[in-house]
Design a protein that fits this description.
7-stranded mixed sheet; 5-stranded parallel sheet; binds coenzyme A; UDP N-Acetylglucosamine Acyltransferase, domain 1; alpha/beta; about 220 residues
Amino acid sequence: MQKDSIFRQVRRDWRACFERDPAARNALEVLLAYPGFHALFWHRILIHPLHRLGLPVIPRVLSNFSRFLTAIEIHPGAEIGAGLFIDHGSGVVIGETSEIGRDCTLYQGVTLGGTSLRREKRHPTLEDRVIVGAGAAILGAIVVGAGSKIAAGAVVVKSVPPDCTVVGVPGRVIYQNGKPADPVLPRVDMPDPEGDAIAALAQRVEALENVARKLEEADGTTTLQ
Ligand SMILES: CC(C)(COP(=O)(O)OP(=O)(O)OC[C@H]1O[C@@H](n2cnc3c(N)ncnc32)[C@H](O)[C@@H]1OP(=O)(O)O)[C@@H](O)C(=O)NCCC(=O)NCCS
């Protein structure tokens, strides 16, 4: 990932608030009242550099303090490109080995989480200009391609090609390059307990109907069609 100076990164974050939040009124308001900007500011100028120096404990304590102030949890190890906009922010969690490209947007409640318990790359990589909607979870060491949009509430556990729109649980690609997605595009195979339960019930009802039909035939009655 190409790196800007810390100053450029902070300036780009600050601009991103204006570019991507129609509610942003003026510079002072963003400086004083945008928790997403504050969390990123402390991550960039202090917490992440201390983590890179290998300092134990202190970066985690500072990131916890930043979380206390902003309700946004960014692990000190997360690599974040310039121009990230975290809108509202409450409940955002960015895991240790997450990598975020330039000019991405995260809404409140987004989780960039891990699925492995090993000390390895276990969090997602977002390429440039990815948008992740409120409450979405992107889990595991997967890659979300540049310009893709993850819908509010989606759960994504497989890599997503560039310029896609992904919706639902499990996340599935519904648009790629502005066109309805080819059905062979990656879909996430996750257990569907509700669907399985409904299918099992339908089978059971059919079996019971067969039994009832046989009893009626033996009885000479016809209630079931
Ligand atoms: C997914 C999203 C990025 C798509 O935006 P878009 O490219 O403008 O596309 P559209 O709104 O035309 O929606 C495309 C399709 O996805 C569906 N869709 C949109 N959002 C969805 C969601 N969260 N979950 C499931 N389906 C969704 C739409 O119904 C539409 O379906 P259709 O093609 O069958 O009509 C957007 O809906 C979204 O969720 N953005 C996040 C916004 C957010 O979190 N805001 C918080 C502000 S506080």
